[in-house]
Design brief:
Layout: E1 2-7, H1 10-22, E2 26-34, E3 39-48, E4 51-60, H2 75-86, E5 135-139, E6 151-157, E7 160-167, H3 175-181, H4 185-192, H5 200-214, H6 221-249, H7 253-274, E8 283-284, E9 287-288, H8 294-319, H9 322-328, H10 336-341, H11 347-350, H12 380-408, E10 424-432, E11 435-444, E12 447-454, H13 457-467, H14 476-483
Parallel strand pairs: 1-4
Antiparallel strand pairs: 2-3, 3-4, 5-6, 6-7, 8-9, 10-11, 11-12
Helix pairs in contact: 4-5, 5-6, 6-7, 6-12, 6-14, 7-8, 8-12
Length: about 500
């Protein structure tokens, strides 16, 4: 449930955030909305268990923002993003600007009405160090794989990495702006399917949840259970893909192709059941475009039954391999306190013993007695294991969900519902293979006036800068794969 608290001054909002931090609220988001040519609205989103609190304050657009990153370290990423899009620095950010995009100077793409405080943008300055034998190694922004660009600059002394600077955000795609300009909800739903190629179900479902909240649409149990199955199938093929990538980067070619074959079987299953290998266009407002019938459900169960033993046998070989253990154990460690300080999400948290899995409190999973998979050391080996255990967990969730459908029936008799949006803020969170997909909209006069999308990689990237210390550059590919970051999560 979303609680909204409005404050008269930025100072009062800042003090409220500090008090909530003392009560163990977890930081999710800080963002800005332009109200008119004179005023902005600062918003901070925090959570504790099922409770979400949105703190807001309308203020002059000439007023500098408080330094929320004094309270939650990861807020500095959002403060830099606010500067990048609105030209609105925090008190702290005047001389520490992270340029996420190669915009022209004095250009702020989301500042349409008011004026920016600063007169000129600053270039990003990579960290300067003073070691006698240091060497700078630059990687990117063009990547050897066909992926969005990113720039990594390593500072090394011999084999030891002393520092890593990461600069993302080279291709701004105007997606968030499009959600404000386009009025056709079906076109927006189609776009939500296209935000990330490997996360079509989760991204579109979060948007669907927003509209369903605003329009107060009632969702049947059959529709919910079908969505859970699609979500878990999406998780399975993505996790197996990353397991393959980790093994590839440590030269385990005799194993990796077997995992790739299993992934291919699930992609073919998706094609047979949902008409698309990557699960395109499954969910819709108040319903699904595709629901299972008994025959399709049996096909899914048959595939899981056929693959489970093979998958577990391959995992036993991998986990008990001294070669794999030596390459992954104690490699790129993220300690629990580091993960907590950075408001880490998904594997960056779970492998470091932080119970961050939205499915634990999601109503869609309320009857599953859900257990959060955790690691102990926060290293590549734990991230590999957590991912593998989640695949097996997804198998069980899918089987239990189909069992529920068999009891209540596969045919959904839900009557058509008309969409009438009501005004206000609405937040939707959906668990995915990179942890939660978080979206927020603001509705005014029955139209979307504000839209924001958060990829969990946005805060998790900084974990790599800590994990790399005193490790060798040669381990960067496998460690990067173990986190499974989204390169395009800052390009929306």
């Amino acid at each position: 449930m979303l609680e909204i608290k409005k404050f008269e001054t930025l100072e009062k909002l800042y003090n409220a955030v500090r008090l909530l931090k003392n009560d163990d609220y977890y930081f999710l988001w800080e963002f800005l909305k332009e109200i008119n040519k004179d005023n902005d609205e600062l918003m901070v989103l925090l959570t504790l268990d099922k409770k979400e609190i949105l703190l807001t304050c309308e203020h002059s657009n000439q007023e500098e923002l408080p330094k929320i990153s004094d309270i939650y370290y990861s807020a500095h990423l959002f403060e830099n993003e606010i500067y990048d899009f609105y030209g609105k620095p925090t008190i702290w950010a005047k001389n520490h600007i992270l340029r996420l995009h190669n915009f022209p100077k004095n250009y702020f793409p989301k500042r349409k009405l008011g004026k920016a405080i600063v007169e000129e943008k600053q270039d990003y300055i990579f960290t300067k160090t003073k070691f006698e034998w240091e060497v700078k190694v630059q990687v990117g922004p063009i990547h050897a794989w066909i992926i969005p660009p990113a720039h990594f600059r390593f500072t090394v002394d011999g084999d030891d990495t002393l520092n890593l600077d990461i600069q993302n955000g080279w291709v701004y795609k105007w997606i968030e702006n499009y959600f404000i300009k386009e009025k056709d909800l079906q076109k927006l739903l189609k776009t939500s399917n296209e935000i990330a190629w490997d996360s079509k179900v989760v991204a579109s479902l979060s948007f669907v949840k927003l509209i369903e909240q605003s329009a107060n649409l009632k969702i049947s149990e059959i529709t919910k259970l079908n969505r859970v199955i699609a979500l878990e199938l999406e998780r399975v093929y993505n996790h197996i893909w990353t397991i393959w990538a980790i093994l590839n980067d440590i030269g385990q070619w005799y194993l990796l192709n077997w995992f790739l074959e299993i992934r291919e079987e699930f992609l073919n299953l998706n094609k047979e059941i949902y008409w698309d290998r990557l699960l395109w266009w499954i969910v819709n407002f108040w319903k699904n475009n595709i629901n299972l019938d008994k025959q399709k459900a049996e096909k899914i169960l048959e595939t899981i039954e056929k693959i489970t033993d093979r998958f577990e046998n391959l995992l036993d070989i991998a986990i008990n391999s001294s070669w794999i253990y030596d390459r992954l154990f104690t490699t790129w460690i993220v300690k629990e306190e580091t993960a907590l300080t950075h408001s880490a999400l998904w594997l960056g948290a779970k492998a470091s013993w932080l119970k961050q899995d939205f499915r634990q409190i999601d109503d869609y999973y309320k009857d599953f007695n859900f257990q959060c998979m955790l690691g102990e050391n926060g290293d590549c080996f734990d991230r590999f294991n957590v991912r593998a255990e989640e695949v097996k967990q997804s198998f069980e969730i899918i089987k239990n969900t189909i069992s529920k459908l068999e009891k209540i029936g596969f045919k959904d008799k839900e009557k058509e519902q008309k969409i009438r949006l009501k005004d206000g803020y609405f937040v939707a969170r959906t668990e995915w293979h990179r942890w939660e997909n978080l979206q927020i909209i603001y509705i005014e006069n029955w139209e979307i006036k504000y839209y924001k999308f958060k990829d969990p990689s946005f805060v998790n990237w900084t974990l790599l800068e800590y994990a790399v210390l005193n490790n060798i550059i040669a381990d960067f590919p496998v460690c990067n794969k173990s986190f499974d970051m989204s390169y395009s999560g800052v390009d929306l």
